[in-house]
């Protein structure tokens, strides 16, 4: 498969500007529904909604350049996955902006956003395969929806992707329920690569896997970066994955444990600085 050459070096690939996100305290759903924009609400309505909600992200700002492999870490409940899903606008930020390749996602039409998302790949924590589809159909799904390739071309791409993630073509007609957790995870990985994305988001890619399969997934992340020149952003609790895969580490801390005005990002730096960081909160994570 061809190496991705679409990265624009004039500005960061991904820019997060002062992003905050609230969740409804009672229902654990987003305080502002995906069909409602903050711009359609009055100032009082926004204030009332947010006062009944729990803030998960507070004024998060960061830049991610093309070609980086970034691990976002932190204890449960600190907002890692929320931040990851905000990057692709699966969640709307209640405040702030997400800018991908120079374009503010909040200003895009539904069609434009759908087109932008074809430049992302997403590896879900539980693979999120379609149970009713075969393995081949699952991997082919992005291609059938977002490309003009022929059935013959798609079939060949699916075979190549299976080979890339270390799976046999013999499973192409099986259903997800017939595969192990590690195999399903690799199928999800293959599907994420199908459209040759510029950026891949990984949500807990090694959770629930044994050490051997976790290492296989880590190697796939490294190879995807090397062979496809993708930017990789992974949310993880796995310190071994962080140390093996990442070139940069961002650590979030739960807002409930921070003083008013303290930044939620308590560390942002390369692996060497991460290993040698003197912040006790970082040291505790490394030692777990």
Which descriptors apply to this entry?
alpha/beta; 6-stranded mixed β-sheet; 288 residues; 4-stranded antiparallel β-sheet; 21% strand; Rossmann fold; disordered N terminus
CATH class: Alpha Beta
| Approximate helicity band | 25-40%
**Total helical segments:** 10
CATH architecture: 3-Layer(aba) Sandwich
Secondary-structure element series: EHEEHEEHEHHHEHEHEEHH
- Strand tally, please? 10
Low-confidence stretches: 1-5, 26-52
Q: Roughly what is the average pLDDT, rounded to an integer?
A: 86
Described by strand count, sense and barrel closure, the largest sheet is: 6 strands, mixed
Shape: globular
Produce a short descriptive summary:
This protein is of the alpha/beta class. It contains 10 helices and 10 strands. Helix 7 links the parallel strand 7 and strand 8.
Task: Please characterize this protein's 3D structure.
It contains 10 helices and 10 strands. The protein has helices at 43-51, 80-87, 110-117, 135-146, 151-164, 181-193, 211-228, 239-245, 271-275, 280-287, and strands at residues 14-24, 53-64, 69-73, 95-100, 103-104, 120-123, 199-203, 231-235, 248-252, 265-270. A 6-stranded mixed sheet has the order 6-7-8-3-9-10. A 4-stranded antiparallel sheet has the order 2-1-4-5. It is globular and about 55 Å long. The relative contact order is 0.17.
């Amino acid at each position: 498969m061809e190496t991705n050459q679409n990265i624009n070096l004039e500005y960061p690939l991904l820019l997060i500007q002062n992003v905050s996100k609230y969740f409804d305290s009672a229902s654990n759903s987003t305080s502002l529904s995906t069909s409602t924009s903050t711009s359609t609400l009055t100032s009082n309505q926004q204030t009332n909604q947010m006062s009944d909600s729990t803030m998960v992200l507070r004024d998060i700002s960061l830049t991610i350049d093309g070609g980086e492999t970034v691990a976002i870490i932190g204890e449960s409940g600190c907002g890692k996955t929320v931040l990851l899903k905000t990057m692709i606008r699966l969640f709307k930020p209640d405040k702030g902006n997400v800018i991908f390749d120079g374009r503010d996602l909040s200003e895009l039409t539904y069609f434009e956003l759908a087109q932008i998302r074809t430049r992302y790949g997403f590896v879900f924590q539980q693979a999120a395969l379609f149970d009713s589809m075969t393995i081949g159909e699952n991997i082919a799904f992005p291609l059938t929806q977002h490309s003009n390739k022929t059935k013959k071309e798609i079939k060949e791409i699916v075979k190549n992707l299976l080979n890339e993630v270390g799976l046999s073509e013999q499973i192409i007609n099986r259903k997800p329920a017939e595969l192990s957790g590690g195999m399903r995870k690799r199928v999800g990985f293959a599907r994420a690569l199908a459209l040759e994305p510029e950026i891949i988001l990984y949500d807990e890619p090694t959770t629930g896997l044994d050490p051997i399969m976790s290492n296989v997934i880590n190697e796939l992340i490294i190879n995807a970066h090397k062979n496809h020149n993708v930017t990789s952003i992974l949310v993880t609790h796995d310190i071994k994955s962080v140390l093996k895969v990442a070139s940069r580490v961002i650590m979030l801390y739960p807002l409930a444990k921070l003083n008013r005005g303290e930044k939620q990002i308590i560390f942002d730096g390369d692996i060497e600085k991460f290993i040698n960081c003197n912040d006790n909160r970082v040291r505790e994570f490394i030692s777990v």
